Amino acid sequence: MVEWFTVLQVAVAVAAGLLCLVLGLVGRLPSDLTLGATAVVFVFLLGQVVVALIAPAVGNVASGSLLEFWMYLVSAVLLPPLAVFWALVERNRWSNVILGVVCFAVAVMVWRMNEIWFVQVA
């Protein structure tokens, strides 16, 4: 993992989460804005997959469990598309709240992946 990319990814996920949560709580339906914000979080996760595949080859090896790291990463990659699908199928204000919660969950999962990569000792 790359630390600055992790921090950027967490910041984007928290900003998207706040946007979706606020718009959902004020009663807005899912729109291009909230679905797009969640899509940006998903694109960053795909970038994280590429970084996680390349990092060990260039000497940036994980200090924690690789199985645990990859389970977090795969789970995090699955969340945004599933949330967007749900928001498109059930278009109400609570869909935006779900998008926000998913973005917050991704932020926490990415931070945990950072801890597994850099902090833990296998």
Task: Supply Rg.
Answer: 15 Å
CATH C-level name: Mainly Alpha
Run of helices and strands: HHHH
Q: Could you give the distance between the termini? A: 16 Å
- Domains, number: 1
Number of helices: 4
Give the beta-strand count.
0
CATH architecture: Up-down Bundle
What's the main sheet like?
none
Strand % is under 5%
Tell me the helix content: over 70%
Averaged pLDDT? 94
CATH topology name, in short, is Four Helix Bundle (Hemerythrin (Met), subunit A)
Detail the poorly predicted runs.
none
Q: Indicate the structural class.
A: mainly alpha
List strands and helices in order, with pairings.
Blueprint: H1 3-25, H2 32-54, H3 66-89, H4 93-118
Helix pairs in contact: 1-2, 1-4, 2-3, 2-4, 3-4
Protein described:
The protein has helices spanning 3-25, 32-54, 66-89, 93-118. Helix 3 (66-89) runs antiparallel to helix 4 (93-118). The protein has 122 residues and is an all-alpha fold. The mean pLDDT is 94. It has one domain: Four Helix Bundle (Hemerythrin (Met), subunit A). It is elongated and about 45 Å long. It contains 4 helices and no strands. It starts with a helix and ends with a helix.
Outline:
The chain is mainly α. The chain has 4 helices and no strands.
Question: Key terms for this structure?
Answer:
single chain; 122 residues; mainly alpha; Four Helix Bundle (Hemerythrin (Met), subunit A); 0% strand
